[in-house]
Amino acid sequence: MSRRRLGSAVALAVLAAWSMPGLASADGRGPLQSLRMNEIQVIGTHNSYHRELSKPERAAHDAIYGGAPIYDNLLAYSHASLPNQLGRQGVRGLELDLYPDPAGGLYANPLLRRRLAAGPLTAPEWYSPGIKIIHTADLDYHSTCVRLASCLRLVRRWSRANRGHVPLLILLELKETDPVAGALGGVSVPPWDGAALDRLDAEIRSVFRRSELITPDDVRRPGLTLQRSVVRRGWPTLRRARGRVMFLMDNGPGAISAAYTAGRPSLHGRVLFTNSRPGRPDAAFVKRNEPRGANLNQIRRLVRAGYLVRTRSDEPLATVLSGDTTQRRAALSSGAQLVSTDFPEVGMSARYDRDYVVALPGGGSVRCNPVIRPRPCRSRHP
């Protein structure tokens, strides 16, 4: 093929790549297929399952904290269903807060509802065994989907219907007893010990096939720790990662992380990537929620070193109400591969007389990473 014809073919392939979600042509043979999965940037949602309390529940919530309008200032936001976020809103990252419930029914009669004499929650899934998705047990518990397995089935159904998507990044925060609710007679949350963590891995695997997941075993190279694998050899290419799902632990180094890595310093056989400290054997993913100030260059250094990083573009509802977009600008320019927001769609902030939204420059669900932009990668809208 002549150089001119080759150049035209490449240009057409790049155009095709950007005409659909993601960075590859429909047939999977575009020139961007050699991109690695850490060389892109996507938008994710924070507390992706969250639905607001009713007005009576909000009042009961704030009464516990002395009557201050905490709920309306911090938690008065709701998300669309997970399939709508992935489809209509184009997000490629989700965050779920998890509570162990091996016998079922543990969180079905929250403290707030007892105070209101409102009776227990009625959805059958509250009473089924399995990990539950709740923002704060007893105090802020409405969710678009209650059981982890049910939520993940929604994600899998969307993924199988959109097999060319870039990897979905699902952040999991493993919650413990809330000190305020616990002191008032709320639920005592079972510990995230080794058995509970094994059940978490098993619950994820009960939904997704092995070939549908990206796990530490897929990234770690023979003879190397997980950390050295990503720093020295890099992440899988998009060719390998498309259509798959990756789970990240939100909790930082501590007792839960230590229990998860016990006997598995490089996460052999595990599903989740831990939120670790750079240099540790399990370090491949690092969470840096604050992208402003000195943290901006720190995130950029981590991205250049080969780590996968999550940051946040806003904090509800202070960012929206203040009109300050400094955090959003810093997050998008930081190179963090996952930028989380509570406002991924136009109109979600309109109730506060604002037009705040977080989207990738130029639109779309994915763009070339602004810090480690590979040479073949050109965004449709520079």
Question: Please, could you describe this protein's structure?
Answer:
Helices cover 32% and strands 12% of the residues. It is α/β, with parallel strands linked by helices and 382 residues long. β6, α12 (255-261) and β7 form a beta-alpha-beta unit. The protein is globular.
Give the amount of beta strand, in percent: 5-15%
Give the % helix: 25-40%
- SS summary, helix count: 15
Quote the distance from N terminus to C terminus. Answer: 29 Å
User: Radius of gyration over alpha carbons?
Assistant: 21 Å
Provide tags for this entry:
single chain; 382 residues; alpha/beta; 15 helices; 12% strand
Short description:
The protein has 382 residues and is of the alpha/beta class. It is 32% helix and 12% strand. The chain contains 15 helices and 11 strands.
